[in-house]
Amino acid sequence: MILNRSELEELLQTRLPPGVEGISGVTHDSRAAGPGDAFVAVSGFKRDGAEFAPEAVRRGAVLVVAERELTGLPVVVVRDAREALARLAAAVCGHPSHRIPVYGITGTNGKTTTSYALHAVFSGAGPCGLLSTAEIIVGRERRPALRTTPEAPEVQSALDGMLRAGMERVVMEVSSHGVELKRVAHTRFAGALFTNLSRDHLDLHPTMEHYYRAKRRLLEWAEGPKLSNADDEWGLRLAGEVEGVLTFGRTPRADYRIEGVEDGGAGMRFRLRHPEGVLELESPLLGDYNVSNVAGAAALALAAGIPEETVVRAVREMPQIPGRFERIGCGQDFEVVVDYAHTDVGLAAVLEVARALAGRSGGRVICVFGAAGERDKAKRPKMGAVSTRLADWSVVTTDDAYSEDPGEIARQVAAGAAPGRYEVILDRLEAIRRALRLARRGDVVVVAGKGHERVQHLPEGDVPFHDASAIRALLRQDGEVEVARRSG
Ligand SMILES: CC(=O)N[C@H]1[C@@H](OP(=O)(O)OP(=O)(O)OC[C@H]2O[C@@H](n3ccc(=O)[nH]c3=O)[C@H](O)[C@@H]2O)O[C@H](CO)[C@@H](O)[C@@H]1O[C@H](C)C(=O)N[C@@H](C)C(=O)N[C@H](CCC(=O)O)C(=O)O
Ligand SMILES: Nc1ncnc2c1ncn2[C@@H]1O[C@H](COP(=O)(O)OP(=O)(O)OP(=O)(O)O)[C@@H](O)[C@H]1O
């Protein structure tokens, strides 16, 4: 869509420099700028976007939107460049969120899982798009995502693409970065859900209170059904502070109440008691925390008018989620699970579920994991302690080391580990190979940390690495060796 001069002046509430007739696109990245675009100079964490304005103009940008005057360029000065970026992006895409209901999912943990569950349920009622940390799904087309919530131009053009592809609803994960950095500003939300809040991202938010308020804003914006987790203290607070918020959870005061949870081995069974009845739900996702995630998604779908039978069927049949307790089966007689858990808390949650699974067949738990470089160092020994406490054998390996020495990170992880219960194999592929070779019938191998990701960031550069593909390749190789041995 083209925004003409008067529309732009109206949107930006200011006069444009002479000679600018209109724009056909908007970007914050000079490298992506093209003829007819507006370039919005955002002040980043590392660089000031204004430095790149001349390059954007060289590439064809006809207007620069900045927070200060830049000589020799067609600049319009605004108070808040990020706000202007979102405003222009929504307008240039024709406000897709006004024409397709968008449901936002926020919280520290469980966003991806809840989003997939809600996407599965909505898909039972009509074509539904998904913007998540793991993937962007439009109908049958799936592509890996780069970020939880991308910048406003990408958000708006993804929504526009979904509308054009005939989607009837969109489910979107909304990170606190997404709210705080105005990546979702000027998006209309038809509904929203809050999963929980725990310590995270305090590099962006000065305090937990700020972090909470960023998440709360999504529910304040939402126009339709709003759900919050009453089992979480922040979720309960939010329900008391934002008008129209309904709650889900195990607590008897929840509007959508989780009851009678049973671990059926292949999945979880529970009842969801709601204002108008009771649903008997069966979900293939293991673990108590996934009962919360699925219940939240089911509650939001019911509140959005999806029929009960559609919810029940979709929950029962929902597919695996890439890198979230993803079970890899290649005919082996033990379980292999890939999970994104990359904190001590996440690792503990996943290993508890793995223990319950292994316990059923008298098997052991073997855990392959590492800690990321250039991130919270305090969690490294804690992860070592958690793994050696909950797994029978741990293989400490390399996660995304970034510029740090993988050997040094592993030493810091090992500093918290119980002696005699682990080994260190820095090469991730070799570490996984070792764990698979150690596994016997009924064991559960957990490969944690990278989940759906397809690149490993190492000091020598980025290398392609995808845990699930590596595991499949190794299992097939070993399976072939095993068959050859037996038949030879
Ligand atoms: C900390 C953070 O959010 N950083 C984001 C930020 O980067 P930055 O401030 O360092 O950017 P910069 O390098 O200083 O550049 C400033 C500006 O100049 C522009 N630029 C830069 C170079 C150039 O050649 N030309 C150019 O125009 C950039 O596009 C940018 O607009 O602005 C960039 C462009 O908009 C983002 O890509 C980048 O996200 C990075 C990749 C990132 O990892 N973000 C993470 C922390 C994030 O957003 N995570 C959340 C939460 C996930 C969760 O829930 O766990 C998410 O939603 O994914
Ligand atoms: N409701 C929950 N409560 C606590 N922990 C959870 C919950 N749901 C998931 N987790 C843990 O968090 C991990 C990540 O789950 P998921 O990807 O669904 O969350 P997320 O909020 O999308 O995180 P990210 O944005 O980092 O992907 C899981 O592997 C599990 O260990």
Kindly describe this structure.
- With 488 residues, the protein is an alpha/beta fold.
- It folds into 3 domains: 90 residues, Udp-n-acetylmuramoylalanyl-d-glutamate--2,6- Diaminopimelate Ligase, Chain: A, domain 1 (3-Layer(aba) Sandwich), CATH 3.40.1390.10; 222 residues, UDP-N-acetylmuramoyl-L-alanine:D-glutamate ligase; 162 residues, Protein-Tyrosine Phosphatase, Chain A, CATH 3.90.190.
- Helix content is 36%, strand content 22%.
- The chain is built from 15 helices and 25 strands.
- Strands 10-9-8-11-7-12-13-14-15-16-17 form an 11-stranded mixed beta sheet, with helices on both faces. It has a 6-stranded mixed beta sheet with strand order 18-19-23-20-21-22, with helices on both faces. The protein has a 4-stranded parallel beta sheet with strand order 3-4-5-6.
- α4 crosses α10.
- The longest helix has 21 residues.
- The C terminus is likely disordered.
- Adenosine-5'-triphosphate binds next to α4, α9 and α11.
- Catalyzes the addition of an amino acid to the nucleotide precursor UDP-N-acetylmuramoyl-L-alanyl-D-glutamate (UMAG) in the biosynthesis of bacterial cell-wall peptidoglycan.
- One of its GO terms (biological process) is peptidoglycan biosynthetic process.
- Belongs to the MurCDEF family. MurE subfamily.
- InterPro entries: Mur-like_cat_sf, Mur_ligase_C, Mur_ligase_C_dom_sf, Mur_ligase_cen, Mur_ligase_N, MurE/MurF_N, UDP-N-AcMur-Glu-dNH2Pim_ligase.
Please tell me what the overall shape is.
Answer: globular
Give the CATH superfamily of the largest domain.
Answer: Mur-like, catalytic domain
**Amino- and carboxy-terminal Cα gap:** 67 Å
Q: What percent of the residues sit in helical stretches (DSSP H or I)?
A: 25-40%
Q: Strand count, sense and closure of the main sheet?
A: 11 strands, mixed
At the fold tier of CATH, the topology name of the largest domain is UDP-N-acetylmuramoyl-L-alanine:D-glutamate ligase
Output the number of helix runs. 15
For the largest sheet, list the strands in their spatial order: 10-9-8-11-7-12-13-14-15-16-17
Class inferred from helices and paired strands: alpha/beta
Task: Determine the mean pLDDT.
Answer: 94
Query: What is the CATH C-level name of the largest domain?
Result: Alpha Beta
CATH architecture of the largest domain: 3-Layer(aba) Sandwich
InterPro entries: Mur-like_cat_sf, Mur_ligase_C, Mur_ligase_C_dom_sf, Mur_ligase_cen, Mur_ligase_N, MurE/MurF_N, UDP-N-AcMur-Glu-dNH2Pim_ligase
Binding site for ATP: 107-113
Cofactor: Mg(2+)
Domain Mur ligase N-terminal catalytic: 23-91
